[in-house]
Prior knowledge:
Layout: E1 2-3, E2 9-10, H1 28-42, H2 44-47, E3 53-57, H3 62-65, H4 73-82, E4 87-91, H5 98-103, H6 107-110, E5 127-129, H7 135-145, H8 147-153
Parallel strand pairs: 3-4
Antiparallel strand pairs: 1-2, 3-5
Helix pairs in contact: 1-4
GO molecular function: endonuclease activity; hydrolase activity; RNA-directed DNA polymerase activity
Keywords: Endonuclease, Hydrolase, Nuclease, Nucleotidyltransferase, RNA-directed DNA polymerase, Transferase
Protein name: Reverse transcriptase RNase H-like domain-containing protein
Amino acid sequence: xxxxxxxxxxxxxYQSRQLQAxxxxxxxHDKELLAMKYALAKARVYLLGDRTFIVYTDHASLRTAxxxxxLSQRMARWLSFFTEYNxxxxxxxxxLNVVADALSRRPDxxxxxxxxxRGDPTVAILTVSVPSSNLLDDVRKAYTExxxxxxxxx
Length: 154
């Protein structure tokens, strides 16, 4: 999602996939990190660069996963992959994250997904949001107004 000039959220792209057989056995927080890695890889062309973006997740513990001293080798590899991007993770309840919530309930995925203890299929999903920012323009403007830098450029 990103905001248009009127401040309305607009979808940049949709992406969803079914978990592989081995991935269905991952702990829930690993499934959430897998979803984040998958989304970042698919949206790479939009997200790489100096702009900061926000990853919204309905899994609150994902925000603290990056600071955990007890990482599996898989999580450590994924966190290494995440260092290419400039983002923060924010919690957004599923009821407020309607688009991502709808993608996680695709009927064709439910036929093969492993049910959890409640009998619901478990599919990891998240939304990546790129807020518009004028930071780069502000920095450029500040450079032109800085007397010290102007003397260096002359």
